[in-house]
Amino acid sequence: MMSLIPQFHRGGLSAISRILDNYENMFSNLEGHQAYAPSFDVRETEKAYYLDGDLPGVQQKDLKIEFENEHCLNIKAHSERESTSENGSWWVSERSVGDFRRTFNFPATIDQDHTQAHLKNGVLSLEVPKIAETHNRKKVDILD
């Protein structure tokens, strides 16, 4: 039996965010739209953010990664599969297909020029370097 509310092994804001994503997808699918939000793992180091997302069936030509600004990254893609079964009708169709867009907002300024992306075996991996903050503040002398 399938539950309408997914079970999470870890709590916190990521669980709440995923529930809201699933809620939005459930209603967009009820309205007849083919939309979904693939899962991503995001981790941070001192110098970069790392994103790994499951994108089964997405071809490189159908994937677009672009920066909205110095803190925001958008990932858009399209995936599809045959809508009919060769040997009869589908009993269950649970795999996600269609268009999606994921937006990631980072607290640090990101280095757009050195961001790297790889798509291998249905997994999109991104390394998004941070721009080092300069601590060289110039002092302004006050004249008499």
Automatic annotation (TrEMBL):
Keywords: Stress response. It comes from the Eukaryota. InterPro entries: A-crystallin/Hsp20_dom, HSP20-like_chaperone, Small_HSP. PROSITE patterns: SHSP. It holds the Pfam family HSP20. Residues 31-144 form the SHSP domain. Belongs to the small heat shock protein (HSP20) family. This is HSP20-like chaperone. It comes from Penicillium cataractarum. The lineage of its organism: Eukaryota, Fungi, Dikarya, Ascomycota, Pezizomycotina.
